[in-house]
Automatic annotation (TrEMBL):
Family, similarity comment: Belongs to the PMP-22/EMP/MP20 family.
Alphabetical UniProt keywords: Membrane, Transmembrane, Transmembrane helix
InterPro entries: PMP-22/EMP/MP20-like, PMP22/EMP/MP20/Claudin, PMP22_EMP_MP20
Superkingdom in the source lineage: Eukaryota
The name this protein goes by in its record: Peripheral myelin protein 22
GO cellular component, one term: membrane
Pfam family, one: PMP22_Claudin
The organism of origin for this protein: Homo sapiens
Segments traversing the membrane: 99-118, 130-151, 171-190
Membrane topology per record: Multi-pass membrane protein
UniProt subcellular location: Membrane
Length: 194
């Protein structure tokens, strides 16, 4: 039983590490001297050194180099194109903020799940199941899946250039999804023994 508990904790901590790395590291999209994550767009040299980073907010997307689709539209304030430019900016802000929020929620749910697991480990009666822990871990998995799916579908609006590829942080987010669901299901199935 001790080995089972240890392996469940290791799996849970691995999921947490994957969630933290995928949320923080600037490698969701890479290519043409740029690296992009949920928070900023960075230009890099051929040796990998970061030169300039811009926030991923829509205001900075209008002035950043490389990936923004809004560069195609002139910035005259009295033209109909200015209205289109503002609408694109708002659309990018909405989906990017939803990705940011769901990734943060997945981390919060996973941390809360680990905390609840330790609490239930000492307070749950013999034969009880870790339902609450499992539900929060499954919610963490669903949040990271939602974030990665939204990013997959909506990022072409943000990145006009097609010479890019998904970075390792994006892939880690997709890897964290089944692992979080697996650990959540294990928690739901797991019974406490003495």
């Amino acid at each position: 039983m001790l080995l089972l508990l240890l392996s469940i904790i290791v799996l849970h901590v691995a999921v947490l590490v994957l969630l933290f790395v995928s949320t923080i590291v600037s490698q969701w999209i890479v290519g043409n001297g740029h690296a992009t994550d949920l928070w900023q767009n960075c230009s890099t040299s051929s040796s990998g050194n970061v030169h300039h980073c811009f926030s991923s907010s829509p205001n900075d997307l209008l002035s950043s180099t490389g990936f923004s689709v809004v560069h195609l539209i002139p910035s005259w304030s009295d033209s109909p194109e200015a209205s289109i430019r503002q609408n694109i900016s708002e659309i990018v802000q909405e989906w990017l903020q939803s990705v940011q929020a769901t990734m943060i929620l997945s981390i919060i749910f996973s941390i809360l799940s680990l905390f609840l697991f330790f609490c239930q480990l000492f307070t749950l009666t013999k034969g009880g199941r870790f339902y609450i822990t499992g539900i929060f871990q499954i919610l963490a998995g669903l949040c990271v899946m939602s974030a990665a799916a939204i990013y997959t579908v909506r990022h072409p609006e943000w990145h006009l250039n097609s010479d890019y590829s998904y970075g390792f942080a994006y892939i880690l987010a997709w890897v964290a999804f089944p692992l979080a669901l697996l650990s959540g299901v294990i928690y739901v199935i797991l019974r406490k023994r003495e």
